[in-house]
Each structure stands twice: as structure tokens, then as C-alpha cells.
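Data availability (excerpt). The following record was deposited with the supplementary files.
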Amino acid sequence: QVQLVESGGGLVQAGGSLRLSCAASGGTFSSYAMGWFRQAPGKEREFVIAISATGGSTYTAPSVKGRFTISRDNTKNTVDLQMNSLKPEDTAVYYCAADQGAIRPSAYRYEYDYWGQGTQVTVSS
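Predicted structure:
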């Protein structure tokens, strides 16, 4: 089975940056579209950004466009989330997810088959 492990979360000031990483094991990483989601306390898990299996296309939520960037390294089985110009409203647990059945990026939670444990990102004002 596919296992995903996020890392890189922490506490930062508004306007700062963080880089999250997700390491995958098992399965065939290069055949999975990968995405990042986040969940704030009392809120539903929401889509953030996703990347196709080859890395050739991405899909980004309007709330983070111009600030967040996703990338992947299929030789290392990793996907990263670079977060710049962070805002307090970005505070959430961030999860990476793998879509085993599609190469395209997707914003739909139900399309993802595997999820990491999450990593906390807290942005202070």
C-alpha cells in the first residue's frame, strides 16, 4: 500500500514562508496525481493545490494562487509545497494525498486514495 508522510510544518509569522514535503513509499509514485489539502479547526478539509503525475500541469485554489507552488520529484518519490507570503488564514493541518486512478490534478477529495497524517502550519499575526 501507498504510505505518505508530511514534514516541514511549524509556526511562522505572517508574510513568512514554509516548505512542506511529502515522502511516498509503495505503489508507483510516478503514476499518481498528487495534491495538498488543508483543514482548519471546525472547518471542512479544503483543496489547496495539485499536480499531475508527470508534473506537467497543476491546479491551484484561488485562495493561494500566486503564493503557493507545488512540485514533485518522481526520482525521489516526493512532492513539495512551497508556501510564501503566508497569512493567518493559512493556519491549518496540511495533508498530502495521492490519486492512484488519474494522472491529472484534481480538486475533489473523493478522487484521492491515500492520505498522509498531516502536518500543522500556524501563521501568527
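Summary of structural features: The mean pLDDT is 96.
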